[in-house]
User: What shape does this take?
Amino acid sequence: MEEKIMEENIEERNYTQEIFDLIRKTKNSKLLAQTLTNYHDNDIADALTYLSPEERKRLYKAIGVEATSNIFAYLSEDVDKYFAELENERAADILEEMDADDAIDILEGLDEKKAEQIINLIEPEYKSDIQLIQSYDDDQFGSLMTTNFITLPYGIGIKRSIDELIEKAEENDNIETLYIVKDEQFYGALTLRDLLITKKDEDLDGKIITSYPFVYDKEEITDAAIETLADYSEDSIPVLNKENNHIVGVITSADLVELISKEEEEEEKKEIREKEKAFPTLQMIAFLLLLAVALNRIFSIFPPIVIVEVLVILAAIAMEVYVLMDNGKKA
Assistant: This one.
């Protein structure tokens, strides 16, 4: 009985309200930062909406750059507005903690002058990642990728592989799939689980998937290609430079889901536009039909057989309109 009451209390908790109250009432920055570690970043992101600019700045200062960047990653709306409130140096530090593709989304929403000022403050290594992704056209797979991934050299053994993974994981947290490179070229993929459960005297070769799917950076994004990648259900897909087969980035499953959702949304909007375009035609058909029936009742202009023929013709026109709409939707 007691467990059931606890479950009900947890379900009824309003985490956003709790976080809002904490930020407003807790004046000690260290205590605030420590207490907020008990809450999910997504709930903290929701609370930002209800805070004043001054309260948000106090929050960012209290929790630090890394924690702030984690919260920004969960914002779906008003990211640019909150980012515009930051001082340029602080904004640059936060961007450096984020994936390059997420940073680009934020920069594109900012005032052009402020965005340029922030970019100039970013460390050269991180700036090069941003510039790389921005160098691709919007219809190329390179524009979708992130540079947050880990590669391991082929043939270095289990211990060295784990040591290198630990070292690289400090900078990149996409570690579920590790990419193996041989002579700096993409060779295959290895899951984190397979690496960790492999015994010291075992050979990793048998665990490496050499037929792992990939795309080229300048390859055109098509519906067929997206469907194919989605069918693999992998957490990430490597993006290769076609000239040398080097891995330049990866496309995450989250990016694919977002892309598919956008396409479905665009398809729905297209259908609505087509129906709106066809609606006046259908209205005219209905009007002519009513007019023909009304005139015939008043003046008996046409014999019944003619009215029937008119109805058939109008019905055929209506059917043709719907066929054209359906063909346009399928195309």
Q: What stands out?
A: Confidence is low (pLDDT under 50) at residues 1-10. The chain has three domains: 2-134, 151-258, 264-330.
